Amino acid sequence: MEAEPMIIAPHNIEQLREEFPLLHQKVNGSPLIYLDNAATTQKPLYVIESITNYYTGYNANIHRGVHHLANLATDAFEKARNKVKRFISASTDSEIIFTSGTTDAINLVAQTFGKSTLQKGDEILLSVMEHHSNIVPWQMVAESTGAKIRVIPITSSGEWDLSALDTLIGERTRIVAVNHVSNALGTINPVKILIDKAHIAGAKVLIDGAQAIAHIPVHVGYLDCDFYCFSGHKMYGPTGTGVLYGKKELLEMMPPYRGGGEMIETVSFENTTFNRLPHKFEAGTPNIEGVIALGAAIEFIEQLGWEWMNEQEELLLQAATEMLHSIEGVKIYGTSKHKVPVVSFLAEGIHPYDLGTLLDKQGIAVRTGHHCTQPLWDWYKISGTLRASFSVYNNLEEIGIFKQALLKAISLLK
User: Fold this and answer.
1) Domain region containing 262
2) How do residues 40-64 score in pLDDT, each as one tens digit?
3) Are 60 and 73 in contact, with CB atoms under 8 Å apart?
4) Does one domain contain both 166 and 74?
């Protein structure tokens, strides 16, 4: 009852774009150019149809029923878990916990592992470029446990200042929580170096993979991270879906996050015993169709192939970077040599909101504001930027149109 296997010619961009119905519309009288992929990617028919197939073919609750539809739904749900395990090279299905997204996954670790292990004076290490979702949960835990937060500084190009690690990681470091890729700068961070240094000090490491998962292969075994979190909607899957990967021995020692159905083994009014992994952390009826569609999104990425996807995205990144450099008064923030296709920029003397509004009037969707990274922009001494973020379905023609729209908007606002 799952979606039929997709057959696609990955080197044909126009054929690929046909897989994305939303792209073929007009906004304010102009063809839509969608450059807000870091916020959420559009969904291919293959993923959309997997949701339709579930609701029209085998809609039922999972794990608890013995009837035919329940068995079909449970099988599809657990197949999706196995796809995730394979996709990130985890050791077992039991290390894959389904959540509502990256934010939920980080909060789960903070409120269980963090609260149960941190003590007064312990240290949590973050970086300047973290998303608010990887700052606020740790601030809450630090406040309740007496732990302290320390911060990795960055360079002017938007990279970690690795020279600071030896003074930041010490005997009181207990948890390191950093992003794999910056949502605001596009920087691909050298997380393996940090993980190894943290482990030498006895600390555990959580990686926020929300912005990495659609752009680079993730191998949690090679990274040796203790936790890895990501969202389905950033990788062509549905909103409200996400994954927490955790090393089995850590997940087993962590207390449950929520109470309810499925996460229990036995219940009486005197005592409750909890279910085995991964169900211990999956209370209640999950987003069944969303998880199944997340599995379809993984298949979509695997059929396109990382090599071709990376070539396409690098081409777009280079073209967009060169285009912005060619416009007088435009400054790019985040100039690392190791980036995903994200460019944050400002036009001199123009508020990003005003520029973003005029771009929208021409059918171009970009993000404006602080991108949930206020400490990062405080470091740069600005309040925010415009952000154009690309996906494999974007093309060079769109970048050309984007340039003309930028020039027109800038001329109107100056």
Assistant:
1) 51-302
2) 999 999 999 999 999 999 999 998 7
3) yes
4) yes
Local mean pLDDT, 10-residue blocks, the chain (414 residues): 55 89 97 98 97 97 90 96 98 97 98 96 98 98 98 98 96 98 98 98 98 98 98 98 98 82 58 70 92 97 95 97 97 97 97 97 97 97 97 97 98 92
Query: Are residues 178 and 278 located together in one domain of the fold?
Result: yes
Other CB atoms within a 10 A radius of the CB of residue 374 amount to 14
DSSP state of 4: P
Q: Round the average pLDDT of the chain to a whole number and report it.
A: 94
Instruction: Give how far Cα 82 sits from Cα of 76, 98, 298, 354, 398, Å.
Output: 10, 12, 11, 46, 37
Q: What CATH number is attached to the domain comprising 370?
A: 3.90.1150.10
The tokens describing 43, both together, are 């969904």
Residue 35 burial (CB < 10 Å; 0-12/13-18/19+)?
buried
Burial profile 283-315: b = 16 or more Cβ within 10 angstroms, e = fewer: beebbbbbbbbbbbbbbbbeebeeeebbebbeb
Closest CA to 393 of 43, 25, 39: 43
On whether both 247 and 379 belong to a single domain, the answer is no
Which residues have C-beta within 8 Å of that of residue 292, sequence separation ≥ 6?
Answer: 2, 50, 51, 54, 76, 77, 80
CATH code for the domain in which residue 211 is found: 3.40.640.10
pTM: 0.95
Residue 331, H or E segment: strand 330-333
- With respect to residue 121, please indicate whether it lies within any of the assigned structural domains: yes
Helix runs in 326-362, H state only: 352-361
- Judgement on whether residues 322 and 384 belong to the same structural domain of the protein: yes
385 is written with which tokens? 């930027």
DSSP 208-249: E-TTTTTTS---HHHHT-SEEEEESGGGTS-TT-EEEEE-HH
**In this structure, is residue 6 part of a structural domain?**
no
Residue 291: inside a domain: yes
Residues contacting residue 214 through CB under 8 Å, at least 6 positions apart? 37, 41, 234, 235, 236, 301, 391
226 bridge partner residues: none
Mark whether 372 is an active-site residue: yes
Of the candidates 164, 372, 382, 401, the residue annotated as catalytic is 372
Bridge pairing between strands 264-267 and 272-274: antiparallel
With 0-12 / 13-18 / 19 or more C-beta atoms within 10 angstroms meaning exposed / middle / buried, residue 164 is middle
